[in-house]
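Hi there, hope your week has been kind to you so far. Do you reckon you could talk me through the fold, stretch by stretch? I've dropped the whole record in just underneath, so have a look:
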Amino acid sequence: MIDANSFELTEEERMVQSTAREFAQREVAPLARKIDHEHYFPKELIPKLGSVGFMGVNAPAAFGGSEMNNVCYAIIIEELARVCASTSVIVSAHNSLCLWPITSFGTDEQKKKYVPKLSSAEWIGCFALSEPGTGSDAARQTCMAVKEDGGWRVNGVKNWITNGPVSDVCVLFTMEDAAAGHKGITAFIVDMKTTSGVSLGKKEEKLGICGSPTSSIIFEDCFLPESQLLGKSGEGFKVAMKTLDGGRCGIAAQAVGIARAALEDSAQYASERKAFGKPIAEHQSIQNYLADMSCSIDAARLLTWSACRRKDAGVPYSRQAAQAKLFASETAMASTVKGVQIHGGYGFVKEFNVERYMRDAKITEIYEGTSEIQRLVIAANLLKEING
């Protein structure tokens, strides 16, 4: 039985941590500067990530997945984010937002078709929920799906789609019945390369995570047959919300990795940089910064692992996932700002990585639910738990 309250890593989880850390340092770290400075999608890393099981972390072994638990998933994302946040979110969006809903709500035929190729990294996946005019109000979808003989005709635009420009498979959310509100939302699986009526908008130029390709996706008179329906008609909102609960664990882990990078780089820099006749690490103000960063990062990691343990145990974890995402993302932002301050003028130039960490950290407070949305989720679940 899984202990949802345990913070100790199992032997398997420690092995995954060691493997992920070594992989990140050997394969990802040498490319991190190029990925950021050139807004470069690290295509050469994708098959390598697939070969070590990182592109099908939670997917069932019967369909070619690694079948690891969610703590292992958080560990992998943290280790990747420690060296390159762009790579970590490519992996996170692929696993959490595309592969997970297919394995959780797909038919056996859909699983056989999609899961092996997604898990091996032959295909890359994305998740299309956000729209230009809706943002956090996910229940107000305007991408319409009109029922026809044998399927649906889809028209609309999705925005801010991580992995959009490089994806082979998209988990798409549409409004089938506007009068029904969120109960009128229906989800589909879209073959991006072969479905007619699907095109990409411009690739976004972003503040951070510059190697993670993001674009809009445009659906114009796009026909999706019955075989592409994910879950039941009208249950797309449930699919989206359950998917985002798990996705928030991934973003929390990403934020922990970014914050940890800022702490470790800053501690090393402070030990070497001298001012007023001694290393700045010996000055109390710098020690205060480092201590605050360390406390918050450890707390964020434990919140993240706690949410993952609960998911693995099959108990409710929506509040815990939102708490982890909220606290970890705000920790990442605060820690990277402190890291830049510790580095002084060097923190403001691209010669040092800490300015990249600060730019990468900001998005963790925004995507997969802003900090404001996380607070609403936390409060709603808390009141429900208290009041029954």
In short: The beta strands are 125-128, 144-148, 151-162, 169-175, 185-191, 198-203, 214-225, 229-230, 274-275, 278-279. The mean pLDDT is 96. The CA atoms of residues 353 and 375 lie 31 Å apart.
